[in-house]
Design goal:
Layout lengths: L2 H27 L29 H8 L8 H13 L1 H22 L4 E11 L7 E2 L6 E3 L4 E11 L7 H67 L5 H36 L6
Antiparallel strand pairs: 1-4, 2-3
Helix pairs in contact: 3-5, 4-5, 5-6
């Protein structure tokens, strides 16, 4: 081969380098699918009255809304909601799914990073002193007899170039899944807090109704006793006495119903807390 042939071959190789670089850039531009863009409200045919207002609530208002039960300044209600978040099975399951999604996200993100591996091995042989041991891989003489200890080690590093964007799309999908799991957890917590709050209010209302009913019953007992004395003295008729007695009986009959309403609300709270007794 002459000198001119060698020079022409080198020139052809150099001229091919820009084409190869352009090809690599084109391959890297071939992402695995287009970027996701949520459809507009008009594309979904959402009525105008259902579309969100352009005015966004301040961040402080959103934080206060997330902990709305604290605005009542009731330490018992706050304690019950916190216990529900810690012990409710639905909240625990949603939190576990969130941890799983975040772990999956971290694992997917690790695919875009270089990987390294280290291996090692030690072998020891006891043989005759007149025996020669040769490494089968390198052909090097390891020992010419007697006991022999061989140490081997290897270190490797690898990295997968994300030319087509598959890893990047996997990370985006894992991140979206983690965000969806977090939203599910927040929704579950909001639902549990609402249920605890409603049943707590029902229990408090039942307590107030029960206190009023018992006070009325005590007052009606006194009234019935006074009407009985007045009937014996001939100051009122038996009809007045019967009316007072029936009113007292109606009040007494309402107390078990109110007590049952209170017990139902308390039992619902206990179920939401995942405990047999709310303490």
């Amino acid at each position: 081969m002459t000198m001119d042939d060698r020079l022409s071959r080198v020139a052809r190789r150099r001229s091919a380098l820009p084409g190869m670089m352009v090809g690599v850039l084109l391959l890297s531009a071939c992402n695995a699918g287009p970027n996701y863009r949520p459809p507009s409200a008009s594309a979904l045919k959402v009525p105008d009255q259902f579309q969100a207002s352009a005015t966004i609530a301040p961040e402080q208002d959103m934080v206060d809304l997330a902990r709305w039960w604290q605005s009542f300044e009731d330490p018992v209600l706050t304690q019950l909601v916190d216990r529900a978040f810690a012990g409710n099975l639905d909240v625990s399951a949603a939190a576990a799914r969130l941890r799983q999604a975040r772990a999956n996200l971290r694992g997917t993100q690790g695919q875009a990073l270089p990987s390294a591996g280290l291996t090692g091995a030690v072998s020891r042989s006891i043989g005759n002193r007149n025996t020669t041991i040769v490494d089968p891989n390198s052909g090097q003489t390891l020992s010419r007899g007697g006991d022999t200890t061989v140490y081997r080690g290897a270190f490797d590093v690898g990295w997968e170039a994300d030319l087509f964007g598959g890893i990047r799309r996997s990370i985006e999908a894992a991140r979206a899944s983690a965000e969806a799991s977090e939203a599910t957890l927040r929704f579950t917590q909001a639902s549990i807090a609402a249920e605890v709050g409603l049943n707590y209010i029902d229990a408090r209302l039942a307590q107030i109704r029960l206190r009023i009913a018992r006070e009325n019953l005590s007052s009606q007992d006194e009234t019935l006793e006074i009407v009985g004395w007045r009937r014996q003295a001939g100051l009122v008729s038996s009809l007045d006495y019967e009316q007072a007695r029936q009113l007292r009986a109606q009040t007494a009959a309402s107390i078990p119903t109110i007590e049952n309403d209170y017990n139902v609300a308390v039992n619902h709270i206990a179920v939401l807390l995942g405990a047999g007794d709310i303490g």
